[in-house]
Specification:
disordered C terminus; 28% helix; six-stranded antiparallel beta sheet; binds iron/sulfur cluster; 2 domains; 19 helices; Glutamine Phosphoribosylpyrophosphate, subunit 1, domain 1; Rossmann fold; disordered N terminus; seven-stranded antiparallel beta sheet; alpha+beta
Length: 501
């Protein structure tokens, strides 16, 4: 496996010009080789985080913790690693880092010994008041090992005055703002929960009975259930907390006042694997439907529809089917180019195009083409791709984007550049088109995106999804950000600069 095979959007990632999902989580109770099942599940979630991975297992007596930088296969691909993680319950995590930096102390699952026994926690999302909670806890004498936002949950649980661990845990959750899908292991079993808005995904399934007992599985995406042979049961609902005891008995709790959920719409656009089912819908089908919406809203008089690999492919198929223009692979990705080659000294030329991609010159020469990509972040990659197509002889290069303009940062667990680095926050449509040097540029409309996920339109008063990176309509309070501003005032309206110190 090359180091790039896991990369979801290698073209953009090469430049750091992409949004990156921060984490994937997986948990299993009642499997004979729980850690091996977890490693396999994490492997299917590798696109959600490639910087570090960790697994914590429980053998009925003790917890065992193994964490490392790098891919899942590098850390958990050997019998020796698995031998260090015995037990029938296990939880795991893959990550990128934004909040907290890259040190091994921040690699999850985090583990602590509480009065009630061991406690392991794996988190996908971002606690948007973690700085505020942390300084309060430090003032009260709490000691932190690392800098990850997730770590605040441990002292909040440890210092809660409620009697049972579950009550302490719920007490801690009530203090959190932001997005969290959590999987925790305790000596009594596993707890899985989703924040009240269900911003980040979490699904539940089971591995059918073998030797008289089945296993309960939780994962960020259904692809992780598929790979371990688990059957998808349902999503963990927004605001739901599910307890699983060591015998596999599950109990659902609803500790929060029920509110309308706001799952991240970008999971459909880009983060989730196309073979996943998200919010009850095939991610692949939604991406195709976005392409169809784009073709309806912004047709292009061209000879070929060409996807930007790899995540632009389903939308390009949809665009081609709707418009009747042939779909062709005009950019070919090499699967064998690693990062180890020494750059030739003629850097100007080699840096101007991707090392992993090449134009299919025989196809595009003399043609008018429309490129389909999932998003534009900084715009530097789009400029290179357009240039690559022109160099290969394309006579017209149009660009269509399968998401609305990304104008705002995400505070819910997705690594977005600061707002002033986002092309769409800096420029209007014409200036963006000029910047990427395309003959025309169009993005799918926000209502077009909602139509692709099966809604008639976006309901502005109570949007059905989190779409804040497009609209600036953040579904939670952003305490940390407010405390960072000079006057405690946020200006997050679309198109206006945020007052972030
Ligand atoms: Fe998803 Fe964007 Fe909301 Fe972040 S801000 S959770 S990326 S929709």
């Amino acid at each position: 496996m090359t180091s790039t095979d896991f990369v979801h959007h290698p073209f953009h990632d090469e430049d750091g010009d992409s949004l990156r999902e921060e984490c994937g989580v997986f948990g299993v109770v009642g499997a004979r080789d729980a850690a091996a099942v977890t490693a396999l599940g994490l492997h299917a979630l590798q696109h959600r985080g490639q910087e570090a991975a960790g697994i914590v297992s429980y053998d009925g007596q003790e917890f065992h913790v193994l964490r490392g930088n790098g891919h899942v296969a590098e850390n958990f691909g050997t019998g020796e690693a698995m031998a260090e993680l015995p037990g029938t319950m296990s939880c795991g995590h893959v990550r990128y880092s934004t909040t907290g930096g890259t040190g091994l102390r921040n690699v999850q699952p985090l583990y602590a010994e509480l009065a009630s026994g061991g406690f392991a926690i794996a988190h996908n999302g971002n606690i948007s008041n973690a700085m505020h909670l942390r300084s309060d806890l430090v003032r009260r004498g709490a000691i932190f090992q690392g800098t990850a936002d997730t770590e605040v949950i441990i002292p909040l649980v440890a210092t809660s005055r409620y009697p049972t661990l579950l009550d302490k845990f719920v007490d801690a959750l009530r203090m959190l703002e932001g997005a969290y899908s959590l999987i925790c292991s305790t000596p009594a079993g596993m707890i899985a929960c989703r924040d009240p808005l269900g911003i980040r995904p979490l699904v539940m399934g089971h591995i059918p009975e073998k030797d008289g007992k089945g296993a309960v599985v939780f994962a960020s995406e259904t692809v992780a259930l598929d790979i371990v042979g688990a059957v998808f049961d349902r999503e963990v609902e927004a605001g739901e907390l599910i307890e699983v005891d060591l015998d596999g008995k599950t109990t659902s709790h609803r500790p929060f006042t029920k509110t309308a959920s706001r799952p991240c719409i970008f999971e459909h656009v880009y983060f989730s694997r196309p073979d996943s089912i998200s919010a009850g819908q095939s991610v692949y089908s939604v991406r195709k439907a976005i392409g169809q919406q784009l073709a309806i809203e912004s047709p292009a008089d061209v000879d070929l529809v060409i996807p930007v690999p790899d995540s632009g492919v389903p939308a390009a198929i949809g665009y081609a089917q709707e418009s009747g223009v042939p779909f062709e692979l005009g950019i070919i990705r090499s699967h064998y180019v690693g990062r180890t080659f020494i750059q030739p000294s003629d850097g100007a030329r080699t840096n101007s195009v991707s090392r992993k991609h090449n134009a299919n010159r025989a196809l595009v020469a003399g043609k008018r083409i429309v490129l389909i990509d999932d998003s534009i972040v900084r715009g530097t990659t789009s400029l290179k791709i357009v240039q690559m197509m022109r160099d290969a002889g394309a006579t017209e290069v149009h660009m269509r984007i399968a998401s609305p303009p990304t104008m705002h940062s995400c505070f819910y667990g997705v690594d977005t550049p600061e707002r002033n680095k986002l092309l769409a926050a800096r420029m209007d449509m014409d200036a963006m088109r000029e910047f990427i040097q395309a003959d025309s540029l169009a993005f799918v409309s926000i209502d077009g995106l909602y139509r692709a996920v099966g809604e008639a339109e976006r309901k502005p008063k109570c949007p059905q999804y989190c779409d804040a990176c497009f609209t600036g309509d953040y579904p939670t309070r952003l305490t940390d950000l407010a405390e960072k501003t000079h006057a405690g005032q946020l200006n997050l309206a679309p198109g206006k600069p945020e007052k972030v110190a």
